[in-house]
Amino acid sequence: MTCPKCQAGAPDNNRFCELCGCKLISANKIEANVVENQTNQINQINHNHCRCGAPPEAFDSQGYCLECGIRRAPRQRIHNKVELLPNFAAVTDQGLRHSSNEDAVVIDLKEINGKKTFFLVVCDGLSTAQRSAEAAKIAAKEACESLKNGLCNTLGQNTKAIMLDAIKKAHSAICKLEYLENDPQDPPGTTIVAAVVQNLMVTIGWVGDSRAYWVGQANAGLLTRDHSWVNRVVDCGEMTEEEALRSAQAHEITQCIGPLETIISGQEPTASLNTFLLTPSSFLLLCSDGVWNYAPTANEFAKVVQQSPSFEALTICEVLVANAMSLGGRDNATVAVLCV
């Protein structure tokens, strides 16, 4: 090794320089210190703290630390996608502001009674609730499995009743999650929107504000109506929609699935239903509010879809998520697309 003071050479096992007496540090020790410092920096970044130790709120809107002036290192976003067919895919993204992804999506297809049947489920775990990511995943998986089993057992009869039962089972599955009763966060809860498509007929069920849209060649439409504070005050005439959307309560929902709903309302959630006959060469899209908040009306949503360089389902998903990220990406963003 080399003495850091007089630059004289010394055996690796020496602790002090024989010429000047300076304490020696081996290259291995220096490398270990560098690795340790890098690890500490990574751990601090992973916890949204600055390398100087400043808390997350110390960063300005441009990502610079107000304590030391260092810009926050970019983090790796969780971005997952699934493509079952060129016309059937889904994407879920962590977003730019959240430390985790509390959305969940499940898509599947199965031939039932000689008909190719498509299943789409999107859930958005409530950020104020405990175990929200788990709640969303459990609900999406349970609802999809229940829909498939229900349709197989009845050969596709009474799809509306099967949809209601699937959402009820998803709710029951989340209610089995353990949670802390005295925790500052709410008990588990999530939104849900689910769809079954056979031929061109779609049956949709939902609780909360995750949505389903239809986009055709010349027209588009919103197929769900949010269980939201905004719709409630507008429906009863307390406010106009413009006034309600300016309120601090504008993003509150009035229903969810999970124990949170049971505790607040004292009863199980009431899912809403809709059926719709899709036109050929159109798109069915289910998404969380992290996507539709940046294109809320059907026409705005359709304009984003029409910007897609191709009309394959995965590409459309990526375009919708990229649109949300380009406009702020303040929430998890999830979308499932079926092109018929």
Radius of gyration: 26 Å
Q: Which stretches are poorly predicted, pLDDT < 50 over at least 5 residues?
A: 25-47
Shape: globular
Cross-sheet strand order for the largest sheet: 1-2-11-10-7-8
How many helical stretches? 9
Major sheet details: 6 strands, antiparallel
Structural class: alpha+beta
Q: What percentage of the residues does DSSP assign to strands (E)? A: 15-25%
- Tally of DSSP β-strands: 11
> How much helicity do the residues have?
25-40%
- List the secondary-structure elements in sequence, H or E: HEEEEHHEEEEHHHEEHHHE
Mean pLDDT metric: 86
**End-to-end separation:** 70 Å
In short:
The chain is α+β, with helices and mostly antiparallel strands and 340 residues long.
